Every structure is written in structure tokens, then in C-alpha cells.
User: Fold this.
Amino acid sequence: QRVVLVNPSEDPDDILRANRSREKTFVFDMVFDHTATQEEVYVSTTKNLVEGVVSGYNATIFAYGPTGTGKTYTMLGTDSEPGIYIRALDDLFKGLGATAKDVDYTVSMSYLEIYNEVIRDLLNPSSGFLDLREDSRGSIQIAGITEVSTTNAQEIMELLVKGNKQRTQEPTAANRASSRSHAVLQVTVTQRSSRKETNEEMWIGKLFMVDLAGSERAAQTQNQGKRMKEGAHINRSLLALGNCINALSEKGGSRAQFVNFRDSKLTRLLKDSLGGNSRTIMIAHISPASSSFEESRMTLIYAYRAKNIKTQV
Assistant:
């Protein structure tokens, strides 16, 4: 459960700085090394959240970390090693199939990206940029997003792979196919009793799976021009997310914290999943390369803060 981060540039013979070691230890709920399989990661992080969605809780899974550390691999995976998206949806349909006979359920999903602070629908990219609206109950809706209803995980896999091809990917010095946008897969499960009673009850569970864009310093990716601007937008929305996480994790503290969800589209969309009625998991990715020591350190600090958020579901 521990991650030990050792500064690669330390000289063991430097007597003056011998006591100033920058070795840091972080404790998490679960730590995986390079030998962990997709199955292991899924079972120990997401599996029990999916069971909650069937009973009407919301759940959110984040993949966070610098460029090139495997966020899209964890979430989408490959054909032979499917990632969290597919495994979660498989389990969701199995769980729904095992529910009581007198319950009708519908599963609808939408897949979108947030690129340079505008929202694009990945299942129907020709629809242009979409707006975030708040409805009368205070939940955030995206006007004009394509919702696909299906009961088959294989169908969804094809849609996701097709949607992922529409994602804004650009080569940077850190990664050849770097995702330059945040991708959000939103699955809504609605269940209602099919017995004809007057006070019909409904359960609605939402599952958000978010593949964040890579966070990195511009120096690392040698970004210029358009890439630089994208990087600024990516880091801006991740900073807004970080500010919300900071404010939420200090909530029980001495001063009352105002949580500014309106700083970016990403935090507005995820308002419920961060501070509201939701169980949330953040999977932080780090690279073992010594050149990305700073990025790894910032990622671990970020994830460590997120661990301190207490929500009342």
C-alpha cells in the first residue's frame, strides 16, 4: 500500500545534504506495480462500485497522471486486455440481468470529450460544440448530447473504440499519441418496477468514467504554438479540479471552504461525483522513468489529497 519516491539526482556521497533526503513515502488504499494485470486493477478498484450503481448509487472513476503513463490503457485497454470501461459495463449488465423479474431497466450512455474548454460529442462529432445547462433540480445536463441505449457490452465496445478514434490526439515530445482532451463516459441506469402501482418507484444510478488528459509541464513535452495553448487549457482544468479537491478535503477544517465548481467545464460536469452523492475512485498513474520525477511527485501529492475527501452518500 505504499509508494516510495526516491529523487534520482541525489548523490550518495554528498555529505552536506545527507540528511536532506528527498525520499517521500505515500500511503494509498491500493498500489499496483508493473506486473499487475487489467483484471487485478479492475477487481480491486471498480468492481464493487458497479454493484452500487445497480442499487441506485452514483459512481465515478478517474484516471489521472502525466502523459504516457497509461491512463487510456487502463480505461479503454486493448482487444486482448480490455480496460475498466468494458469490464465495468459487462458486470453492470450481468448485475442487471440478475435483478428481480418485475423490474424494467434501461441503460443509456454518452461519450464526450472536453477539449480547450469546449464539449464535443464523440459518438456524433458533427454536432459541433455543446452547452452545459443546469435543470430545475440542479443536475447538470449537456444539451444535444447523443444518448445510446443498449444492453450489450460488445456493442458498447465498438462504439467506444469508434468514439476514441474521434478524440483529439496530437504527438508531443512525451508521447506519440497523446490525448489532448478529457474523455468522459457517462452511463445512466434507470430501473422501475413493472408492477402497475400508483406510487411507482425509480432507481437512477450514474456511472462516470473519466480519462483525464495528461498533466505535464510544457518543458517536458517541448510544446509550442497550438500544443502550448492546449496544454494550458488542460492544466487549467486540472488545476480547477485540484482546487475543488483541496477545498473538499479541507471541509471539516477550521475555515469554511467555498468549493468553486464553476471554474471549468470539467468540474461543473463532475460536481455530483466530487462532492455529492457519489462513490469516487481516483487511479493515479506514474512513470518509473527518472526524467519524470517531478511529474510523479506532483501526481502522488494530488492523489494523496483526493484521498482525504469525505463525502456523505
